[in-house]
Amino acid sequence: MSSPSLRQLDIFAQMAAAGSVARCAEDMGLTPAQVLDGIAALEMRLGYRLFDDSGGAAQLTPAGRKTAQAMMQLGGDDAPTVVDAPDADMPPAQAAPSASPRDAIMLAAPAPIFGHFQDALAAFEAANDDIAISIDLHVHSADDAAAALAVGRADIAYFYALEAPASPPSRYGWSEPLNLYAGSGHPLARADMVGRSDLAATPLLAMERHNGMRIIAEAALARGRASFPMTALESDNMLEIVEALRDGVGCFAAFGPLARDLGRMSGIRRLALDMPLPAIEIRQATAPHVENKPAAQALADYLFL
Hints:
By secondary structure, the protein is α/β, with parallel strands linked by helices.
């Protein structure tokens, strides 16, 4: 439990099982504020909401149910017990062709990408009640995707890249700009333009070394020739990163939903860079067997549109 991310996942599991903030806090020996902070930090890192109302009865969102199920597939002792059900309020989706009873589709994607199309997944399942979609949130790179597809751990995989990889064969989905952020009181945040020499004298804040978002962000920074003298903080606890930014400790690279959330926060500002940074590509790949699995091919095409 020394890792903030593990602590956040533990709080999420206990919250889903307990059904309320108060019960979760009592079971874990924490204050309700600590529970809410843990959930907020995890939601910010994932890029989507896990609970509809974490202030009272803890009702999992459809994305929260999928996340809980992904934890259960890892076989963790702390995985919450949930029952998945389609959301009746989701818009209609085209039915998949000739799906066999209880057809299972495994989708692998980084959590923020899953958050991008969670509504589409719910709509697809609602239109195809004989299909069960499972989520693997541990694929981030082309190598991760290739390995998952090769061993049958995924039918469809989304991953981060800076360009089309040699393997696996993939198609371009969309791009997300990489931005740098600092506290609004930081000298770089007040500058009209920030160059490479400015960054070379500024500490960097980063997620933990194994984090797939950090790996692709650092690859983009390196390609853009943006270097930093040191890493002042490494944490997957986004509330800790936000606090350090507001304290003026350094700057932080972000893209996708995380960048969107940082840009909306008081006390944090996007740096005005005088050079472009490479965008992060989101790519989709499918396993070779998907051409013989119509339901999975239909989902891949539906998500791609």
